[in-house]
Structure prediction request, 226 residues.
Amino acid sequence: MHITQLNRECLLHLFSFLDKNSRKNLAKTCHKLLEVFQDPLLWSLLNFHSPVELKKDNFLLGPALKHLSICWYSERVKVCNIEDWMKNSFQKDFCKRHENTVSDFLLDVCNRCPNLLSLTLSGCGHVTDDCILQLLKNCPNLKSLKLENCVRITDHTLEAVTRHGASLRTLHVDFCRNVTQAGLERVREKCPSVMLRAERSANMIPDSKPERKLMLEKASRKLVQL
Prediction:
C-alpha cells in the first residue's frame, strides 16, 4: 500500500510524529500530502529551539495553535543568559542580528492565534512588556505563561497580567531580573488563583540600575588585572 492510499486521519497521525522539516519535505512530494501539511489540526503545538527556525516556512500559524514554546540555549552563545557587560563581541553580534526576531514572531501570533492556551519563552532577551501585553489582549484563553531569562520583562508585564490575564492559571517569571518584589506581591494580591513562580528574579541585579552595572564592570576589570 502506498502512503497516499491512507485516509486523512491516518496521514495526520503519521505527520504528527515528524519534525517540521520532515513534514515540509514530505508535503513537497504530492498534492495530497501537501493538503495534510496544511491541515490546521496538525499545528496545535509548536516548539522552536533557534531564532533561525522562526523565519522558516516549514510550519503554519493559525487559530488551531494551542501550545507554543520558544526556548534556546547554547554552550558557545548563551543568548541573553548573562549580564550584558560579560558578553563577548560574538555574543553581542548574535543578539543584535536576532533582536526583533522573537518579538515580530509573537506579534504575528497575536494576530493569527487567538486560541493559544500556553506560551513558554526562555532565553528570549529582546521580548518586551508591550509584546506580552498584546499577547494577553489577543489571546484571552491563555492559561499558562512561562517566562525564563527574559531580561526586558518588568513589572509592566505583571500589571498586564492583573488587567488582562483573566484566564491565566500559571505564571512563571524565573530569572527575569527586572521584575520587583512589589510587582510580584501585586499579582498575588490581584490574582490569588494564579500559580506564581519567580525563581531568582526580584533579588537579582536589575538592568534598570546602571550604577550597579558600572560597579560590576569595575569589579570585573579588577579581577582580570589580578
In short: The chain has two domains: 1-42, 44-224.
